[in-house]
Write a structure and sequence with these properties.
The chain contains eleven helices and twelve strands. The protein is an alpha/beta fold. It has a single domain, classed as TIM Barrel. A twelve-stranded mixed β-sheet has the order 7-8-9-6-5-4-3-2-1-10-11-12. Bound molecules: S-adenosylmethionine and iron/sulfur cluster (SF4). The site of iron/sulfur cluster has 12 residues, from loops.
């Protein structure tokens, strides 16, 4: 017999709808702030990572995700930092897969740099993961090393091959970087589409102190798209994930190309997502400093009531939208937290 009364159950399972009528069904969780790479637009070379005690344990992450699933989350993405460098992260994936089996969760997915993917691809597939996003900005070994500061491209390519061999659908995410990979984007797209993978291009976002001028890296995707259109036939697709990506079909390759343009487009009306950092901080908007601490209610009691109420309160304050600005005079990020802490 459960000792949870009707009202308590109500609190725990009330669907999350924000003041603007948007129902929250997509949760991204950063399982670590650590990473085995140091992509120059994401981290500084000498990053200081959080003390272990600040991180949610894997058990706490499980409890937190489960609470969100009870409250209507249907799609869950594990990210980081690099999720696959968290010790025993596969234990968490295995445990969360019970929600796929029960039908409560429709999709469990991951964003990874793929350096450890060859090791884990088969188990991810076995846990019911069907699709993953792999971040890869270049196919040039030297450039890859420059962008990631020490990464080995061959490891990443082997990870992608292993994922495909395990039956996972792979989507490639590439950050468009002025003067770095901008001339290579058509080739990257042809490579991805040739392997049956969609490619999504991302505009660099002003997040976190990274020790380099960010204006130098900013390449508007409107320009990238215009250049691609000189070579390829792009037709808009209606397909949307409720997120910031817009998709086109490329006639010549038959593949899908996405554009994530947080700087030049407003996608907030259809936003169905929230993020939780590896320390249990809930952000209801990527572009705002709003934050709710979920670690405290998680640790305060073994019951999920307090946690659930805190989530409800935060969703009730989800901002209508955001406006990223790269401050051209001061060249400072408009949001000070790093993408690796928030979870990209
Ligand atoms: N380590 C994993 C990876 O790279 O896929 C997951 C975390 S990473 C923070 C998630 C995504 O955020 C990656 O695709 C990365 O390229 C992107 N990203 C990181 N910093 C960014 C920034 N300042 N602007 C835009 N995208 C960024
Ligand atoms: Fe690591 Fe991903 Fe950030 Fe690159 S983008 S440093 S792989 S967390």
């Amino acid at each position: 017999m459960s000792d949870v009364s009707l009202t308590d159950t109500d609190v725990l399972t009330r669907p999350m709808t924000d003041p603007f009528g948007r129902t929250i069904s997509y949760l991204r969780v950063s399982v670590t702030d650590r990473c085995d790479l140091r992509c120059f637009y994401c981290m500084s070379e000498d990053m200081t990572f959080l003390p272990k005690a600040d991180l949610l344990t894997l058990e706490e992450l499980d409890r937190l995700c489960t609470a969100f699933i009870k409250k209507g989350v249907r799609k869950l993405r594990l990210t980081g930092g690099e999720p696959l460098v968290r010790r025993n992260v596969m234990g968490l994936v295995r445990s969360l897969s019970r929600h796929l089996s029960s039908g409560a969760l429709h999709e469990l997915t991951m964003t990874t740099n793929a350096t450890q993917l060859a090791k884990h691809a088969a188990e991810l597939a076995d846990c019911g993961v069907r699709r993953i996003n792999v971040s890869l900005d270049t196919l040039d070994r030297e450039k890859f090393r420059t962008i990631t500061r020490w990464g080995d491209l061959d490891r990443v390519l082997a990870g992608i091959d292993a994922a495909q061999a395990a039956g996972l659908a792979v989507k490639i995410n590439a950050v468009a970087l002025k003067g770095m990979n901008e001339n290579e984007l058509p080739a990257l797209m042809q490579w991805a589409h040739g392997k049956g993978m969609a490619l999504t291009l991302i505009e660099v976002m002003p997040m976190g102190e990274i020790g380099a001028g960010r204006i130098d890296q900013y390449l508007p995707l409107s320009l990238v798209r215009a250049r691609l259109e000189q070579q390829f036939t792009l037709s808009d697709l209606a397909q949307t994930t409720g997120g910031p990506a817009r998709y086109v079909r490329v006639a010549e390759t038959g593949g899908t190309l996405g554009f994530i343009t947080p700087m030049t487009h407003n996608f907030c009306e259809s936003c169905n997502r929230v993020r939780v950092t590896c320390t249990g901080t809930l952000h209801t908007c990527l572009g705002h400093e709003d934050a709710s601490d979920l670690r405290k209610p998680l640790r305060a009691s073994a019951s999920d009531e307090l946690l659930s109420e805190t989530i409800d309160r935060a969703i009730g304050l989800k901002p209508k939208g955001h406006d990223f600005i790269i401050d051209r005079r001061h060249n400072r990020p408009s949001v000070s937290r790093h993408m690796s802490v928030t979870g990209g």
